[in-house]
Amino acid sequence: MENHSLIRASGRTHGKIALLAVAASMVFVAAVSAFGVTKADGGARANGPIIKATTTINIARRDAAR
To answer: Domain of 14?
Structure first.
């Protein structure tokens, strides 16, 4: 059995590789989820002027297209 090459590996070796990839993915997702849940968000704060959206104003003149 030549399990040192991924191309010539047996089906059992491919299964082990796939199982390891799934397990590593689940650990990664669990770690990211746990970090996101325990992270306290104090609220977003922005410093600077407040800009409010108003109605659209056209500044172009009638003869500007010529």
So the answer is: 1-40
